[in-house]
Amino acid sequence: MSDTDTSLKYQMKNGTSYLIQLCVEPDTKHTSAFLKDQIATAFKSLSSHSRMTRFAAPINRLTNKQLDYLTDLDGKDRVAWCAYRIAEGKEIGLGLGRYMKLPKEEKVAEFAITVVDGYQGQGVGYQLLTKLIESAKDNGFHKLRGYVMKDNKPMLALCKHFDFNKEYLDGPFVILDILLD
User: Which residues pair with 178 in a beta bridge?
Assistant: First the structure.
């Protein structure tokens, strides 16, 4: 838990307690370096199927450049929320939800959610997306856009809980626009 205790407490469908907070918090141990380590560790827990549906490529590890990109956060145009649980005094990463402002579109940000395999289907992704939506609204965005693989049924089902438009692309992706107005 962070030094300033800004975490929000939740419970999974199976009863397991977990916390969600902004991934990088000033004046806490949750720095970009800490987040990079947490992401790299959690990535090892993803199955090859989860890696493929999230990254659209059969990757075995994240490069330093990818980790830099994922942890370059400013709290407004680039925001990330982390879900974790405490076990034996240590934080165990469960999932990450983030958005990044799209440079060529006014008030639109691209979002992505990743939940470690053992915690998928437990409501963690729903809570992460809810926090992203709240942050995006607070920061003046009108739309969150996700590029989701057509066979990523859990993500497509998750987005049905929110007001969204769906547009199919040629290829393996669907564009999901979650409307924030």
Answer: 144, 164
